[in-house]
Design a protein that fits this description.
disordered N terminus; alpha/beta; Rossmann fold; threonine biosynthesis; 453 residues; six-stranded mixed beta sheet; four-stranded parallel beta sheet; 17 helices; 13% strand
């Protein structure tokens, strides 16, 4: 059969938007989804990720008509949901049937406080870091994926798909494998770390390398999922962002619901900026917090369309050709820009940029204190340091930064920083292995240096 005939046959067999054949369809249909552009409502019992009428981004509307007391969180849930740092916040999430929930006990990530990080940033008010690299596949993406893949399972999706710079692909592959649903992943050829690609392959996803960057891969995939019955799980998916809300919910619970002055996070496709704004609005509405912190979104200078948009007073937006060593945020046309703008406006937040050198140096500091993170994560600390230096954040501010991925997500970056020169010299925080003769006196000298260094 000619390839064109195969395409047409598949198009007819698997039309986009096939109604759910799964259980609890009535429960799904009751979930409210609304376009943030034209306001059109849409049912949740079909796979829809953008508004069919205007192409706008969609929001899941959570009915939050009563106050929630801290002691009520997680009560009355099955043990599997209670064990999840996402699903234990069930009252703030969409009502996906329990039978469809796909969970790996994600979330429950630590919040670290370290005076050395605060000192590096120039803060006396304290700096905490919420480490999302402690999720099952070692990045924050698992929080969104548990909700996105659960919705896919609930609507009877035959295949789930994403475009990715690495972390999304690893997470989707894992959760799809858990759910028993095939996964299709598009990645920019040669432009993701080996660790992330290894995860994706190991979990059994069908990996397709696209000759282009992430933005081109996502555009191509959105065209495919608009025509065929493949469930898109990128951050345009409104259910995925509902899971990512729980980063902030859990963070504030760890703080005893005491709101910091600012929450800083890396900005790539801007899903987290969007989700954090949603979370804060929800928490204020149910009375768990009494004010909003500033959201501080930090982009790599070589991949920063959102920062100049913010600087222009939201008057001028232009996509860029992204270039940064922080591959997780190497995105030139973020899909969640309208949602992210709403979040920054609601919280009177800030958008800034940092250079790759600033990211690498901040990462080396985070690594050196024993916490560790992938490069993009360190944009949080680098951005806070810049804003304190510029006087935008006061030195007495209490700030929490989000680390989005684990140190081992990008070991190539670690080796490059510590073993390769910059401008003919070792980096500022370089920690190079030593080679010594196999003699005790040589090792004794190293010991003496270490004790006095």
């Amino acid at each position: 059969m000619p390839s064109g005939a195969v395409v047409e046959e598949r198009r007819g067999r698997y039309p986009s938007g096939t109604p759910s054949l799964g259980a609890d369809a009535a429960t799904l249909a009751a979930i409210r989804i609304r376009c943030m552009g034209c306001g059109t409502p849409h049912p949740a019992n079909v796979a829809v990720t953008v508004c069919p009428r205007c192409g706008g981004l969609l929001d899941v509307e959570i009915p939050l008509d009563t106050r929630i007391r801290p002691e009520e969180i997680g009560q009355g849930l099955p043990s599997a949901l209670r064990a999840s740092g996402v699903w234990r916040y069930r009252a703030l999430l969409p009502a996906i049937p329990d039978s469809a929930v796909v969970t790996r006990a994600e979330g429950n990530t630590p919040l670290y406080w370290d005076d050395r990080l605060a000192g590096y940033a120039g803060l006396t008010g304290g700096l905490g870091v919420k480490h999302e690299g402690h999720n099952p596949t070692a990045s924050f993406k698992d929080r969104g994926m548990t909700v996105g893949v659960s919705h896919a399972k609930a609507v009877g999706a035959r295949i789930v798909a994403c475009a990715s710079t690495g972390n999304t692909s690893a997470s989707l592959a894992s959760y799809a494998a858990t759910a028993g649903i095939p996964a299709l992943v598009l990645i920019p050829e040669g432009k993701i770390s080996g660790g992330k690609l290894a995860q994706t392959i190991a979990y059994g996803a069908r990996v397709v390398q696209v000759e282009g960057n992430f933005d081109q891969a996502l555009t191509l995939l959105r065209e495919l999922t608009a025509a065929y019955d493949a469930y898109l799980v990128n951050s345009v998916n409104p259910f995925r962002l509902q899971g990512q809300k729980t980063i902030v919910i859990e963070l504030l619970e760890q703080l005893g619901w005491r709101v910091p002055d600012a929450i800083a996070l890396p900005g790539g496709n801007l899903g987290n900026t969007s989700a954090f704004g949603m979370a804060l609005a929800d928490l204020l509405r149910v009375g768990l917090i009494d004010r909003l912190p500033k959201l501080v979104t930090v982009q790599a200078a070589g991949a920063a369309p959102f920062a100049p948009y913010f600087a222009s007073g939201w008057q001028t937006y232009a996509a860029v050709s992204p270039e940064t060593m922080a591959t997780a945020i190497k995105i030139g046309n973020p899909a969640s820009t309208p949602r992210a703008r709403r979040a920054i406006e609601q919280t009177e937040g800030i958008v800034t940029t940092v250079s790759d050198d600033e990211i690498e140096d901040a990462k080396a500091i985070i690594d050196r204190v024993g916490i560790g993170c992938e490069p993009a994560s360190a944009a949080s600390l680098a951005g806070v340091k810049r804003l304190v230096r510029e006087g935008v954040l006061g030195p007495d501010s209490r700030v929490v930064g989000v680390l989005t991925g684990h140190l081992l997500k990008d070991t190539e970056a670690v080796i490059g920083y510590h073993l390769r020169d910059r401008d003919g010299a070792a980096r500022g925080q370089a920690n190079r292995p030593l080679t010594v003769p196999a003699r005790l006196d040589a090792l004794e000298r190293v010991l003496a240096d270490a004790l006095h260094g």
